[in-house]
Design brief:
By secondary structure, the chain is of the alpha+beta class. It has a single domain, classed as Creatinase/methionine aminopeptidase superfamily (Creatine Amidinohydrolase, Alpha-Beta Complex), CATH 3.90.230. It is built from 4 helices and 15 strands. The strands form 4 sheets. It has a 5-stranded antiparallel beta sheet with strand order 8-7-9-14-15. Strands 1, 2, 4 and 5 form a 4-stranded antiparallel beta sheet that branches. Strand 4 and strand 5 form a beta hairpin. It is globular and about 45 Å long. Bound molecules: magnesium ion (2 copies).
Length: 254
Amino acid sequence: MEHISRKSAREIELMRAAGRVVAEVHVLLSKLVEPGVTLLELDAAAEAHIRKRGASPTFKGYKGFPATLCVSVNEEVVHGIPSKRKLQSGDIVSIDCGATLDGYVGDSAVTLPIGDVSPAILDLLRTTEESLYRGIEAAVDGARLHDISYAIQRHIEPKGYGIVREYCGHGVGRRLHEAPQVPNYGLAGSGPRIRSGWCLALEPMVNLGTHEVVTLSDGWTVVTKDRRPSAHFEHSIAVTDHGPLILTDRREIQ
Ligand code: MG
Ligand code: MG
């Protein structure tokens, strides 16, 4: 298996600074999303904030991706490209943002409801976000990697939702995607032993219907096969001797 790097306390501080920029973007965007706003307007606001903080948008140019944000609406799961599309009441929008500051990457995603969203879809959002926190709680030194996966799966499956298989969480650090891969389903007690200093991006992608997904002809946008809605929540975290530390925490940002 590919080497899993352990970050020093100093590196984790740098990861936290990068993560804070991403968290600030999410707080900013949560105030901008409303019916009528275009996805490109959100992207421009995100890029301006990242650059104002002296950081750079990690996704822009990554494998040729053209924008700062991945913005995925309704049945779009991940990797949606910002367009002139206007958000409407009843939509849900998944916003995934990466920022690189002083050589370290923060990566975080949220799914937001726009206006009046049906209770069934709000439950999908709530359950997916809860599963992320269950995964984070399992990310402790000495546990096994797939304890994280299992914690997420166990929270989702009783609802009958579909957990996306093709995409998963990942190590994060100087690069956006580092070892290990962190699936959102798996066997408790399996996988490598988790160590302090690991930095991971945990990111359940959960569909209201089938778990199956397809990629559109733009080569990027992933949608559910049955075109029912999908939710995505992600945090970058560090495993520390004192438990998991959320690097992209929004709770202390106004
Ligand atoms: Mg992400
Ligand atoms: Mg990620």
